[in-house]
Amino acid sequence: MADFLLVHGSCHGAWCWRDLIPALTALGHTVRAIDLPSHGSDPTPIADVTLDSCRDAVLSASAPETIVVGHSWGGYPVSAAAEADPKAMRALIYLCAYVPQNGLSMIEMRRRSPRQLITDAIEKSTDGQSYTVKPGAVRDIFYHDCPPETVPYALARLCPQAIAPQDTPLSLTNKFTHVPKAYIRATDDRTIPPEYEEQMSHIAPEGLRRAIDSAHSPFFSHPRHLAEVLNDLEKRLPAA
């Protein structure tokens, strides 16, 4: 069985993995989730959050046998961790996530998307350091296929997202290239266009690419199915 480390996306925290953790545990895996800086219970001020500090949060929680799962924006800090220390993890799994291109920030990657789906749903803070998702847009962009209780549960926990780490270019070398990778895309995603996820999924070999008939948050809408997909990918990834 494997050790999974779950890394959340923008405005979320370790709380978003609530339903996936027991589903993976039931399959015999060890599962952990972390709060990136300024999210969840992490006290880091938004002004102090950097891509490096997000990377370091992943590295401090990972081990050579760990499969690191990055959701959405989480694809960037997990990739930065793989670049910094490829021996600190067994593999990366991108879940509806941005896969960095060398020298580009996540914001630049988002701008290269064939469609912009969340522009009207985002509200920047007055100081320009962070953004939030407008409450009325949360269900449509993140949870439209999730159980009804998901939205109030999430609204009570969603937090501002620091812009600086997402506006920081990431340089990648062969260290990143040599880390094994898999990709799980969502076919009904309203945050990242599904066709863009399909394009980014080619970071992984064909046998390590999967699709789920889901919106952007399959950990809420299809936690057992997602656990089964992760379980299957774990068997196909190189051993630690």
From TrEMBL:
Residues 4-224 form the AB hydrolase-1 domain. This is Esterase. It holds the Pfam family Abhydrolase_6.
